[in-house]
Amino acid sequence: MGFPAPARPGRQGAAVLCLLLAALGFAGSGVAGDKPAMPAVKAPVLFNTPEADRILAALQVFPPDSAWNEDISKRPLLPNSKEMIAAVGADKPLAYNLDMAFILVPANQPRVAVKLLKYPQESDPGPYPVPNNAPIEGWPLDGRTLDAAQQTVEPADRHLIIVDPIQRMLYEFWQARKTPTGWEASCAATFDLKTNKLRPDRWTSSDAAGLPIFPAIVRFDEVERGMVQHALRFTVRNSRNAYVYPASHCASSKSDPNLPRMGERFRLRAGFDVSGFSPHLQAILKGLKKYGMFVADNGGDWRLSIAPDQRIQGLDEFRKLKGADFEVVQTTGPKEGPRAR
After folding, report:
1. Dihedral, CA atoms, 308, 187, 199, 170, nearest 10 degrees?
2. Sheet containing 95-98, strands listed edge to edge, beginning at the edge strand earlier in sequence
3. pLDDT score of 341
4. How confident is the model at residue 113 (pLDDT cuts 50, 70, 90)?
5. What's the pLDDT at 289?
């Protein structure tokens, strides 16, 4: 749950706070909004571990002025916000998928070739830093062994997400599978988390919207800190044949203007009372008020992506929310909002 902002510490108080953070495993200043120093990353680290929590606490995902980190709590609504909510389902409950596992790798992680099957012309070139223990979407909560998750042939998205926190690079794959001769995937997308550079216009990614997945999933380390401080991703069953920044791609033939575009941004209403929810849910709902969520792919309506981490608690409370608790905002472009110069 959230905590009240502390009084600004003096020099002695700041020093004590630094020592306390260091004792908890967070080296660095840790005061006045600073992130802790990045811990050493010497080997691949799975997402659902205390070591990953310490690394992620130090990782700046995209610049502070990126679309994901943009405060949209005061943005005006689209004129057809109510109609768009109704088109997705005003009475439908909010839902979630425990799907997007990821792995953190060291800067010197050996690179391997990945055979690209469906969208090589819209993929970033390899080789890529794919470790032997790379998790596939849904693992480990799907009950499979890691080997089975990596090798199973199935008609599924099978996202594979790899983060290099030292070089701040992100590698995402769609329909990834480990074969006897090496890795293969339908698409490979690389994102530089140090910049606001996104996919070329009309290029897909491992998401239909051409967006990165990792910056928009709910993680344990951030719900523990009391607030998810970035936009989330969610799916809708029916989208429009259009996209809006920061999306670069769409996946629909429908033209109804009340259907959301890929990249459409929704937020939880400011007046929605979150006080009765459990601490981890409050952290998510506070983030949805300030940063909102992007339409990222076609799928079940109102389904947010949560890391499949058993430490995240209270997710069944999502059913207490419904589509009518949200509204659709007018998004800013690549040179608007906090990116205006």
Report:
1. 50
2. 95-98, 303-306, 232-236, 293-298, 265-268, 326-329
3. 77
4. very high
5. 98
Give the model confidence (pLDDT) of 139-161 as tens digits: 999 999 999 999 999 988 999 99
CA 213/CA 190 separation, integer angstroms? 11
Checking 141-145 for CB contacts under 8 A at 24+ apart, the result is 141/98, 141/308, 141/310, 142/308
**Dihedral Cα 169, 172, 177, 181, nearest 10 deg:** -40
Structure tokens at 234: 């969610």
pLDDT tier, 216 (very low <50, low <70, confident <90, very high otherwise): very high
Cβ distance 37 to 28 under 8 Å? Answer: yes
Q: Note whether 138 and 152 are within 8 A (CB).
A: no
Give alpha helix (H) positions in the chain: 11-23, 50-58, 81-88, 146-151, 220-225, 279-290
**167: amino acid identity, one letter:** Q
DSSP lists the bridge partners of residue 168 as none
